[in-house]
Specification:
- This protein has 1 helix and no strands.
- By secondary structure, it is an all-alpha fold.
């Protein structure tokens, strides 16, 4: 699940940016 972890990291970064 390496691809899922990368997608989750992108979503977390987006949440922190908001």
């Amino acid at each position: 699940a390496e691809k899922e972890e990368r997608r989750l990291r992108k979503i977390q970064a987006n949440r922190e940016f908001a």
